[in-house]
Write a structure and sequence with these properties.
The chain is of the alpha/beta class. The protein is 53% helix and 11% strand. Among the domains are: 85 residues, Arginyl tRNA synthetase N-terminal domain (Gyrase A, domain 2, 2-Layer Sandwich), CATH 3.30.1360; 91 residues, no CATH class; 168 residues, Isoleucyl-tRNA Synthetase, Domain 1 (Orthogonal Bundle). It is built from 20 helices and 13 strands.
C-alpha cells in the first residue's frame, strides 16, 4: 500500500476535472500536524496561481469532485488553499489487516523490467579495501529492493581482470618459477608480489618490454598466459567471496562480468565507430570528439578509443559493456554504482554509445555515484600509518568491538551465541553506517556512533526488532497465528498504522533513486512510532480484543522491520 501515491492519483484526477491542465502534478504529503489532517494536498495553489484564480476557490472545485469514498472520513480546505485529508479509521484498519496477512506486507509488484546493476568491482591480485565497501553494500541493497519489487535483476560484478598489469605479473611469475622460487598463493602475498612486479616494470626497461610482450600473448590466447591469469583471478575471487559472504552480500562467482569478457568486442566496436565517422584518426590514435564536453580552450574534448600502439582503453571497454548489456542481456535499465570521480568518464562513454546507436534512449543509463568514507579528521579513511584499510581488517575490528559490547550488555550468554550476535551486529553496523547516509555525500566513519544502541544505527534497529519479538516470547504467542481484528482505539495506533502503510513508498524511493538511506530513515521512524505506541498503549495488559489488535500491530511492525533490514542485507536476531 502506497497511501501517498494513491492520494496523488486521486487528487490529480480531481484537479483535471476542476480545470487544471493535463499533467498538472498533485503534491500530497503527510501532514506535519496530524491533528489537522493525516495528509495534505498542497499542489493546488501553484495551479490556481498559474490560472489566475483564487486558490481557495479552486481548492473547493477540486474538493467537490474529489473521490475519497471509504478512504477519508473528512476533507477540508485549510489556509490559503490546502486540502486536509483525514483518513478513515476503518479503511486504515482494513489495510493493516491486509498487510499483516500478505507475505509482501502490502507491497505491490512493479511492472517488470530487466535491470542490470553494476556494483562492487574489485581488482584481480589486490585485496578488497574500504574503498570497495560503499559500491558493494549500496549496490546490493538496491539489487535486493529491485528484486523484491519483482524486477528481473542481473547483478554485474565488473571485475578488473584485464590490462597491462597482467603482463608484468605473468612475466614476474615466470622468472620466479625459472629460479625455483616459490610464490605464496595467499592473496595478501599476491598483493605484495603485485607491488614487486610494478616496481620492476617501472625501474627495469628490459622487464617492462617483456611484460608488454606477455600482454600481447595473453590477448592472443596463449595457453601458458591464460593459465597464469586464471590462477590469479581465482585466488582473488575466493578471497572476495569470503568478504561477500561475511557481509551478507548476494554476489557470487556467477555474477562476475570482468573486463576480459568484453575484450573480443573491442576491435569490432572501434572499426564500427570509425566506419560511422564517429571515431577519427588523430596523432596515430583513434579519437571521438564530443561537442558536449569542452576542453579548457573551449574545443570539443577528444576521447581516445584506441591508442597508437593498437591498445584499448577503459572507455572502449565501457562502450562494449553498455552495448552488451542492452543487446545480449536485454536491459531496460542499467545502473552503475561507481565512485563519483568516474562521472565524466561514464558520461563520455555513454555519449559515444548513444551516437553509435548501441543503446537507445528508451534504455536508462544511470550513474549512481557515491561520496567517500572519511576518518574523524575529515580526510579519506586510512590506517594509523596512512595506508589503505583492508576490508577484512575493518570487519575483524567491527566484530571485536561488537563482542565486547555484547559481553557488557549480556554476559550470561554462551560463547557461541555471543559470537553469533557479535558477528550479526558488527556486519549490520558496518553496512547500516554506510547505507543510512545520503549516497552522494562523504561521511565520517565513527566506531562509537555506528555501534551505538541509540539513534539511527543497525544495533538500534536490530534491538527494536528483538524488543518486539520479546513481547510474543513473554506471552508464549506465535506472532503468525493471532486472532481478532485490528481496531484503532488510540491516536498512537492510527499514527503507527499510517507509518506501516508507507513501507511501499520507501521501497519505491530506493528503487527509483538508488538511495538506501530512504529505507533506513523510514525504518528508524517506524521504530520511533512503535516506541510511542508501546509507551501509550499497553499490549499484554490490555483487554482481550484490544490486546489482540495491538499484538497484530506489533507483529506487523516486527515483520516490516525484519523485511526492511533484509532488503538492506542486514540480519535480525531473536535476542541480543
Amino acid at each position: 500500500m502506497n497511501i501517498q501515491a494513491l492520494l496523488n492519483d486521486k487528487v490529480a484526477a480531481a484537479m483535471r476535472i476542476a480545470g487544471a491542465p493535463e499533467g498538472s502534478p498533485a503534491a500530497v504529503r503527510q501532514s506535519a500536524k496530524p491533528l489537522f489532517g493525516d495528509y495534505q494536498a498542497n499542489g493546488i495553489m501553484a495551479v490556481a496561481k498559474k490560472q489566475g484564480c483564487n486558490p481557495r476557490d479552486f481548492a473547493q472545485k477540486v474538493l467537490d469532485v474529489l473521490d475519497l469514498e471509504g478512504m477519508a472520513s473528512k476533507t477540508e480546505i485549510a489556509g490559503p488553499g490546502f486540502i486536509n485529508i483525514f483518513l478513515d479509521e476503518t479503511w486504515l484498519e482494513t489495510q493493516a489487516e491486509k498487510a499483516l496477512k500478505d507475505p509482501r506486507l502490502g507491497v505491490n509488484l512493479a511492472e517488470k523490467q530487466t535491470i542490470v546493476v553494476d556494483y562492487s568491482g574489485p581488482n584481480v591480485a589486490k585485496e578488497m579495501h574500504v574503498g570497495h565497501l560503499r559500491s558493494t553494500v549500496i549496490g546490493d541493497a538496491v539489487v535486493r529492493t529491485l528484486a523484491f519489487l519483482g524486477h528481473h535483476v542481473i547483478r554485474a560484478n565488473h571485475l578488473g581482470d584485464w590490462g597491462t598489469q597482467f603482463g608484468m605479473l605473468i612475466a614476474n611469475l615466470e622468472e620466479h618459477e625459472t629460479k625455483g622460487t616459490d610464490i605464496s598463493m595467499d592473496l595478501r602475498d599476491i598483493e605484495g608480489f603485485y607491488r614487486e612486479s610494478k616496481k620492476r616494470y617501472d625501474d627495469d626497461e628490459t622487464f617492462a618490454k617483456k611484460a608488454r610482450e606477455y600482454v600481447v600473448r595473453l590477448q592472443g590466447g596463449s595457453p601458458y598466459c591464460k593459465e597464469k591469469w586464471h590462477t590469479l583471478v581465482q585466488i582473488t575471487l575466493e578471497q572476495t567471496q569470503r568478504n561477500y559472504d561475511r557481509l551478507n552480500v548476494s554476489l557470487t562467482d556467477k555474477d562476475v562480468m570482468g573486463e576480459s569478457m568484453y575484450n573480443p568486442m573491442l576491435s569490432e566496436i572501434v572499426t564500427d565507430l570509425k566506419n560511422k565517422g564517429i571515431a577519427v584518426e588523430s596523432e596515430g590514435a583513434l579519437v571521438v570528439f564530443l561537442d558536449e564536453f569542452k576542453n579548457k580552450d573551449g574545443d570539443p574534448m577528444g576521447v581516445i578509443v584506441q591508442k597508437r600502439d593498437g591498445g584499448f582503453l577503459y572507455t572502449t571497454t565501457d562502450i562494449a559493456c553498455a552495448k552488451y548489456r542492452y543487446e545480449t542481456l536485454h536491459a531496460d535499465r542499467i545502473l552503475y554504482f561507481i565512485d563519483s570521480r568516474q562521472h565524466q568518464h561514464l558520461l563520455q562513454a555513454w555519449s559515444i554509445v548513444r551516437k553509435a546507436g548501441y543503446v537507445p534512449d528508451t534504455v536508462s543509463l544511470e550513474h549512481h555515484a557515491f561520496g567517500m568514507m572519511l576518518g574523524k579528521d575529515g580526510r579519506p579513511f586510512k590506517t594509523r600509518t596512512g595506508g589503505t584499510v583492508r576490508l577484512v581488517d575493518l570487519l575483524d575490528e567491527a566484530q571485536i568491538r561488537a563482542k565486547k559490547l555484547i559481553e557488557t550488555k549480556n554476559p550470561a550468554l554462551c560463547e557461541d551465541e555471543k559470537n553469533n550476535i557479535a558477528e550479526t551486529v558488527a556486519m549490520g553496523a558496518v553496512k547500516y553506517a554506510d547505507l543510512s547516509k545520503h549516497r552522494t555525500t562523504d561521511y565520517i566513519f565513527d566506531w562509537d556512533n555506528m555501534l551505538a544502541f541509540e539513534g539511527n544505527t543497525a544495533p538500534y534497529m536490530q534491538y527494536a526488532y528483538t524488543r518486539i519479538t520479546s513481547i510474543f516470547n513473554k506471552a508464549h504467542l506465535d506472532k503468525n497465528t493471532l486472532d481478532g481484528k485490528i481496531k484503532i482505539s488510540h491516536e498512537k495506533e492510527k499514527a503507527l498504522i499510517c507509518k506501516l502503510l508507507q513501507f511501499e513508498e520507501a521501497i519505491l524511493g530506493v528503487s527509483r533513486e538508488g538511495q538506501p538511506h530512504i529505507l533506513c530513515s523510514y525504518l528508524f521512524e517506524l521504530a520511533g512510532e512503535f516506541s510511542s505506541f508501546y509507551e501509550k498503549c499497553p499490549v499484554l495488559n490490555a483487554e482481550n480484543e484490544i490486546k489482540q489488535s495491538r499484538l497484530k500491530l506489533a507483529a506487523l511492525t516486527a515483520n516490516t522491520i525484519q523485511q526492511g533490514l533484509d532488503l538492506l542485507g542486514i540480519k535480525t536476531l531473536e535476542r541480543m
